[in-house]
What does this fold into?
Amino acid sequence: MSDPPAATSDPAPERSSRYDRNFGGLLAAMLVTVVFVAGYVGFRAVTRDQPELEPDIDYASCVAYLQEADVMVTYPQGLPAGWRANAIHFTRGTPPQWRLGLLTDDDEFAGVVQQQEDVDDLLDEYVDENARQGPDATPANGLGATTWQTWSDAGGDHAFSTELSSGPLAGQTLLVYGSAPFADLETVLGSLTLDPVSGGVSASDCDTDELG
It folds into this structure.
């Protein structure tokens, strides 16, 4: 009897490379995601509101400019390191209206207002309609004002106010206010003066457009 033919096995069917297909799909998905994210970021960069960078303002030269016109406004003789002025406003009148905006080295705001208005009206406009009055303060200053009222609101803003009864600014109200702490506002208040601007400051350097 002859031996039975040796059994032969058909070659195993070729297995599909599931790994290759999955890797390709993953790579394609990643590329789509990257393109989508990049497009979204670009779209947001174009459409979102861009922050406005406020330039530094040479307030001393503008004070000198007003002084040459015999206009009396109060201003800080100097600012602490890292502080800067970022806004001024002047309205002609008898007396005029004057505002100066400052930023501390922590980017907290401190403002100075000089107007012939009631304290309550200035508080409503610049601080809060519901500002709470604190204890009176007697910070050192060069304006002859011995007593200042203190104020705070629910949002964390503070203010010092006084109505001047004598001197060149008699009848006017001063308000020193802002998001800066009381200590920083007191620093501003203590440096306020009516003295002629010194230190080589030139009135011709004032950008008079900033006074509007």
In short: Residues 34-53 have pLDDT under 50 and may be disordered. The first strand starts at residue 75 and ends at 76. Strands lie at 75-76, 84-91, 97-103, 109-115, 132-133, 149-152, 158-163, 173-178, 192-193. Residues 18-47 form the longest helix (30 residues).
